[in-house]
Amino acid sequence: MIGFLLLGLLAVIYLVINLVLPMVGLNTLIKAYLIQPVLWVILIAAVRFMPGYRPLGKRSKKSAFVQLALGLAFIQIFLYFIGGLFSGFGKSPSSFTLLGIAENVFFIGTMLVGMELSRAWLVTRFGKKHAFLVIFLATLLFTFIAIPLSQVTGFQLKIASSSQVISSWLPLFAENLAASMLVMTAGAGASLAYRGLLAAFWWLCPILPNLDWALKGLIGTVVPIIGMVVINSYYSSEASKVKSRKRIRNAAMPTGWIMTSIVCVAIIWFATGVLPIKPSLVPTGSMEPVINPGDVMLIAPVQTGAIKVGDIIEYKNTKEKINVVHRVIEIEGDTQNPSFITKGDANNSADADPVSPQQVVGREIFIIPKVGWISIAVKKLFGG
């Protein structure tokens, strides 16, 4: 029951910040640097009054986990600076007056403390029997909370969105994964040490590296995952010295972390185009009943000479600035300079303009039903 109360408080804070405050006619600074921190302070007070929790790690090893967390953050920051040597540096957009620094510390500090105390309570309360599952669910929860709702509702499952996924969302997921592991083993102090040092770097450092999205995503994703595996290995070795049943219970955990790492790396390859197959969300019913709204179509690059009548292709509509998924019903011109007449299966007439080879994005190779319906539902609910 208390767990649902805590989840409810987190949901209320997220909705107030992302839905209510943007509609309130108050000064932006008041909304960002006063009201939002007050909401997190209320959450902090609520968590402090909840029944206590105890991390799975030994109390005597708590300082060791905090040192590991700080070391992980230092390595990540160091690699960011190394990347800056190649991509250059720029001035931070943050204010560095005494008042500006105090406002930023209060703003980001209350949010981090509120999130990590909540994470620690949830993970240590429910993760003793199903550690990997609870850590994974907590990671998804706090990753979502950290992403503005406008980014979620405005996201489109296209290759053009890969920079946002790789430079922001994947590193955020990896950071929260490491933080969830840290609170499981050593409590909120360890996760605050890790996330707090990273936040201090991005908010309080006057000079920041101008990393391109791919390098920022690579460092921000790989370093936390490797650090998480190291932390888990250290915890498992310590636990095996205490009780054999803990050793048995935790024997499967490294496999879970390895699988998580593989999935994250695969997502990076998939989104960056290292793999030739790309996803495309179909939001309309123009291709029903073959492709329904919310289906995700996997497309692959194709030579225009290999496209045949009956193929489903994705092409760029240069007039409306959108990508369209329709079937080729006729091919005009010769093999050197063809043009494709396309039509939606559910439409009464063909598309107004022929499709040139330069407009073709790829050809459909597989359809995954209904994977994207949540994205469409969220957009309709919040975006109109």
Dominant shape: elongated
Going across the biggest sheet, name each strand in turn: 3-4-8-5-6-7
Counting DSSP H or I runs of 4 or more residues, the number of helices is 12
Beta-strand segment tally: 8
The biggest sheet amounts to:
6 strands, antiparallel
Integer-rounded radius of gyration? 24 Å
Compressed to H and E, one letter per element, the order equals: HHHEHHHHHEHHHEEEEEEH
The end-to-end span amounts to 34 Å
Round the mean pLDDT to the nearest integer and report it: 82
Q: List the domain count as a whole number.
A: 2
Sheet/helix structural class? alpha+beta
Which range best describes the helical content: under 10%, 10-25%, 25-40%, 40-55%, 55-70% or over 70%? Answer: 55-70%
* Strand content range: 5-15%
Low-confidence stretches: 243-253
Structure commentary:
With 384 residues, the chain is an alpha+beta fold. The protein folds into two domains: 2-272, no CATH class; 278-376, Umud Fragment, subunit A. It has twelve helices and eight strands. It has helices at 2-20, 28-49, 62-87, 98-126, 131-146, 149-153, 162-186, 188-204, 213-239, 244-250, 253-272, 373-383, and strands spanning 89-91, 207-209, 278-281, 296-300, 312-317, 322-332, 339-343, 360-368. α7 (162-186) runs antiparallel to α8. It starts with a helix and ends with a helix.
